[in-house]
Write a structure and sequence with these properties.
Chain B: It is a multi-pass membrane protein. The complex is a heterodimer of chains A (357) and B (270). Chain A has 357 residues and is an alpha+beta fold. In chain A, 24% of the residues lie in helices and 33% in strands. With 270 residues, chain B is mainly α. Chain B has 2 domains: 53 residues; 202 residues, MetI-like fold. Chain B starts with a helix and ends in a 6-residue tail after the last helix. The chains are: A alpha+beta (357), B mainly alpha (270). The interface between A and B is medium-sized, with 24 and 17 residues.
Chain lengths: 357, 270
């Protein structure tokens, strides 16, 4: 019932010479968790703020649950929001903070208490209800902000980088908790982050944004596995996708002296360069040469605990390769690499767009 | 460790020195105003209230124009506070929140009103007030003082409003508040210390301002104007009594507003 539909939203900030969002259209289905991810300045926060009603678009429409809300003030849109800076009210106790939305809706006293209590329980804040926010830690303040957002039972929940002010460990913990809570509530959620790991782990679908446009929209694994362009492949994943230039010739791909088998659909690129994209974990590595394996030289070895992250040089290209933690690697050692043909992605060197199989 | 102790001692000493610097004159004035006339001329001057007497004070309070002046000063002071806040708080909010054309110029222009000496301003002002039929009324002085107090009011409140994050207002609006409700429930309570400070400045300015008040009134003198005009040909005791009468209300006003001020600087003395 409460899908969010954004159609052709254009917004240019006063004094800005380029569009913050440039004709963005997308749909968040009822109950779906959609993550907007992208580098800073890509327009994701602007888009969220237009959905919230905190900014007015130059053109385009926003509808929530089938109702056009483009020009309605935030309070008439039936949504709630978690802000990056938490934006909890320092002069009110936690109880009043969580219940602010209920106070504004003139909810009766007993119902107020019941709903605030439930939200506080959900976020483990029962003991802190009579404290002022200044007496809470950053993580607790963030919980207050989330509790305030869910207590109103709004149909749509907006989150603007809610985890970015937490330290790394807390962020990881709270991420899982947030996913559990939102999953329980089943609220339609639009979530903004610049952290690709957050986007991958939280979203039912992920919209990768760049320069005010949606570069790719899809399920996290699909977007991760088949980036629609070089930008998406380079943005999602840690380490980012490797890109190397290869020349197509006689059914083979030449990278420096090495040669790989070229898939059939590259036949139209005969004699021209293409960009090959491959994820670090899709490259196999061995110490001994074998047929079909390509030699390379290790430059840097970075143990990550679960695996080894190798930076290797193949011809003129630098690649990130994920090797098993037990792999005997040393700088300047020779190794041999191989990738399943199915794990290779191909991109147009000019436009950066994926070449369809 | 030893160095830190020295530093602390130095800070303490500085605090004592500043307190004495402010306190001793106040004490001496109060002493002189509350002692008998005879003891003022004694040498050496007794530094303890050996002969307390209300004689000097009561003479001063009974002298012509003092009660009226006191009431006028109070009227003008409170009126200035109300007017300055009424105009200055919305202006401060606008300066803090909105990027509008000419904002920087506006802020500079605000300060310019203080660049002109009151002496220069007061003659044309007297002329205007004469024409408007406001001359020799407390309103005239109130208007002048409001104009003088406005720059500080606007700048102080603007600084305070900048301190309340805009996201808090946005959050309030998301959760069902209209813009006015968001201001009243979220911004205003947090801005209270700053507004109190601005009120304090406005009141003090009005209470202490002499020149404009002297030029703009004849019979409706404020207390400082009254004291100033009669000072030259009054006995020493009268001057001390006048001094105390001028200082006391200001001290009371500060004492009342202090709570909010300390609040603003992060001390919790509730």
């Amino acid at each position: 019932m409460s899908s969010v539909v954004v159609y052709n939203l254009v917004k240019t900030y006063a004094g800005g010479d380029r569009r913050a969002t440039d004709g963005v259209s997308l749909e968040v289905a009822d109950g779906e968790f959609l993550v907007l991810v992208g580098p800073s300045g890509c327009g994701k926060t602007t888009l969220l703020r237009m959905v919230a009603g905190l900014e007015t678009p130059d053109s385009g429409t926003v509808s929530i649950g089938g109702r056009d809300v483009t020009y309605l003030p935030p309070r008439q849109r039936g949504l709630s929001m978690v802000f990056q800076s938490y934006a909890i009210f320092p002069h009110m106790k936690v109880r009043q903070n969580i219940g602010f939305g209920l106070t504004m809706r003139k909810v009766p006293r007993d119902e107020f208490d019941r709903r605030v209590k439930r939200a506080a329980e959900l976020l483990h804040l029962e003991e802190y209800l009579d404290r002022y926010p200044a007496q809470l830690s950053g993580g607790q303040r963030q919980r207050v902000a989330v509790a305030r957002a869910i207590v109103v039972d709004a149909a749509v929940l907006l989150m603007d980088e809610p985890l970015s002010n937490l330290d790394a460990l807390l962020r990881l913990q709270f991420r899982a908790e947030l996913k559990r809570i939102v999953g329980q509530l089943g609220t339609t959620t639009l979530y903004v982050t610049h952290d690709q790991a957050e986007a991958m782990s939280l979203g039912d679908r992920v919209a990768v944004m760049r320069d005010g446009r949606v570069a790719q929209l899809g399920a996290p694994l699909a977007v991760y596995d088949r980036p629609a362009d070089r930008f998406v492949g380079g943005f999602l994943g840690s380490p980012p996708m490797n890109f190397l230039t290869a020349r197509v010739g006689g059914g083979a791909l030449a990278v420096g002296d090495a040669s790989l088998q070229a898939p059939d659909h590259l036949s139209t690129w005969e004699g021209r360069d293409v960009v090959v994209g491959v994820r670090a974990e899709n490259i196999q590595v061995a110490t001994e040469p074998a047929a079909g394996w390509v030699p390379a030289r290790i430059e840097v070895v970075e143990p990550t605990g679960a695996a080894l992250l190798l930076t290797v040089r193949l011809a003129d290209e630098q690649l990130k390769v994920q090797a098993p933690a037990t792999f005997p690697a040393a700088p300047d050692a020779r190794v041999h690499l191989r990738a399943e043909p199915a794990a290779l992605r191909f991109y147009d060197p000019e436009s950066g767009l994926a070449l369809d199989a | 460790m030893r160095r830190r102790r020295w530093q602390r001692a130095a800070v303490q000493a500085a605090c004592v020195a500043i307190t004495l610097f402010m306190g001793v004159p106040l004490y001496l004035i109060a002493l002189a105003a509350l002692s008998s006339r005879a003891s003022l001329n004694r040498f050496p001057l007794p530094l303890l209230p050996t002969e307390p007497s209300t004689e000097t004070m009561s003479t001063f309070l009974r002298s012509t124009g003092v009660t009226g002046g006191f009431l006028n000063s109070l009227t003008v002071g409170l009126g200035t506070v109300v007017l300055a806040l009424l105009v200055g708080v919305p202006a401060g909010y606008a300066v803090a929140r909105y990027a509008f054309r000419g904002r920087d110029t506006y802020q500079l222009f605000l300060l310019l009103t203080r660049a002109l000496p009151i002496v220069v301003l007061s003659v044309p002002l007297a002329r205007i007030f004469l024409d408007a039929g406001l001359y020799d009324t407390t309103y005239a002085v109130m208007l002048l003082h409001t104009a003088l107090a406005l720059p500080t009011t606007v700048l102080i409140t603007a600084a305070i409003f900048v301190g309340v994050s805009h996201e808090q207002e946005e959050a309030a609006m998301i959760f069902g508040a209209s813009p006015v409700q968001a201001f009243l429930r979220v911004v205003a309570p947090q801005a209270l210390p700053g507004i109190a400070a601005a009120a304090m400045f406005a009141f003090m300015l009005s209470w202490n301002e002499v020149l404009g008040a002297t030029v703009l009134t004849l019979n409706q003198r404020t207390l400082p104007a009254q004291v100033l005009t009669t000072l030259a040909d009054s006995p020493l005791a009268y001057r001390f009594a006048g001094g105390l009468a001028l200082v006391l209300p200001a001290l009371v006003f500060i004492a009342v507003m202090r709570r909010y001020l300390l609040n603003m600087w992060g001390t919790t003395l509730r």
